[in-house]
Amino acid sequence: MDDSEPFTVDTVLAPVDGSEESATAVEYAVAVADRYDATVHVLFVLGRGVVRGLNAGTVDEETVATDTQGFFDEIQAVADAADVPLVTAVDDGFSQTRKTRHPGNVTLDTADAIDADFIVLPREPVTDTATSEVLEKAAEYVLAYASQPVLSV
């Protein structure tokens, strides 16, 4: 792309984890999509504890689905208000059998799979607490390795 080519965006990827910070990132993604007449693809990335619990049968799949859908309903209202098309998906952010599967990797793989032109993700503070959100550490990875423009909010 050179200066004579206009910047275009057809698909904005917004990886989320259900946190307030990721809801804010969706608001930014919707604003970018609105500016470029694009679609927002929201990817809900399930955390390590949820994935392990689902695999072990200690976390109720129906509860996870209900919570995830509740978050999707909230952000759908943001997209509807801007008249921006919204696509949603859910993926495991971690794997007990593949060391290379983590939220940053899942984000970039999804960006490639859906041919995303732009990524918006939360850049939450890295904490030492066990309850830290899923995407806290993914932002650094995505910023370092994404081939698309990235807005970290």
UniProtKB/TrEMBL annotation:
<protein>
    <submittedName>
        <fullName>UspA domain-containing protein</fullName>
    </submittedName>
</protein>
<dbReference type="Pfam" id="PF00582">
    <property type="entry name" value="Usp"/>
</dbReference>
<feature type="domain" description="UspA">
    <location>
        <begin position="10"/>
        <end position="152"/>
    </location>
</feature>
<dbReference type="InterPro" id="IPR014729">
    <property type="entry name" value="Rossmann-like_a/b/a_fold"/>
</dbReference>
<dbReference type="InterPro" id="IPR006016">
    <property type="entry name" value="UspA"/>
</dbReference>
<dbReference type="InterPro" id="IPR006015">
    <property type="entry name" value="Universal_stress_UspA"/>
</dbReference>
